[in-house]
Amino acid sequence: MATPLALVIVLLCPGLLVSQRIASEGELVHTLLARYQKEAASLARPVKNASEPVIVRFRPSFRKIMDIDEKKQELSIYLWRTHIWKDEYLTWNPSDYGGLNRTRLNANKVWTPDIVLFNSVNAGLESKDGDSNGKLIVHHDGSVQWIPRVIEKSMCDIGANDFPFDEQHCFLKYGSWSLRANELQLDAKEEADMSEFHHHTEWEVIGNSVKNQQTKYECCEEMFEDVNYEIILKRKPAFLARFMLLPAILLSLMLLVIFWIPPQRPDRTSLGQFSPDAFCGIKPEQP
Questions:
Q1: Structure confidence by residue, pLDDT tens digits, 50-103
Q2: Could you confirm whether domain 39-236 is CATH 3.40.630.30?
Q3: Where found (predicted)?
């Protein structure tokens, strides 16, 4: 009888451990949020010493260029925004919760940095509710990680002087909307992550850089910290050269041939009428 009993215990132990872990995590989340409502607030900075700034590590990960609207002077890009900071009110001892050293919380229940795109053409901020954008990963030492997925639409001055062999420089300027430089510091020394970038059919990203600075705005007396990410784009001219430059060159050569044909020959008139019609009939589709 000992062997079947041992087998039953072995089979039940993993389920009991999982149930205990779920119960421990539920208790932990309840305790953290209850303590947060008592000692802090979702709008207050997560530091116990008000004179200390919150240091937020920030880095975007560029995923795909959605669109470049040359008429509206706008850049649309899909990216992930990584925020990492320390919340002094979200700490616990893992041994009190079955060795649990991290958990997940809803972003609208605790403080999150109000970092926005200053040169955005969209109205309002992205939502913290719903899918994974509203989830934070919290570690037992108070470290918090938040990676919302957004489609940024920013202003970009696009020139056409060297079209179609042009390069464009677009900027994404991020910063806190309400917190001064002595209240929130942006740790953004790395360039944007391009490891998961999907290439565009018409534009190629040939470089990107980052620059930190402090700015004083007319509205306020204090300095605000912001970070500028520059994206250098180069147009791929192959498509435009094939359907614009090459037909123009061929048409010019055919016009020269027409002038060489004697005026009294009837095929000169026919060729002159046929040449523009042939090229106007080309209707390429954008890849």
A1: 899 999 999 999 999 999 999 999 999 999 999 999 999 999 999 999 899 999
A2: no
A3: Synaptic cell membrane
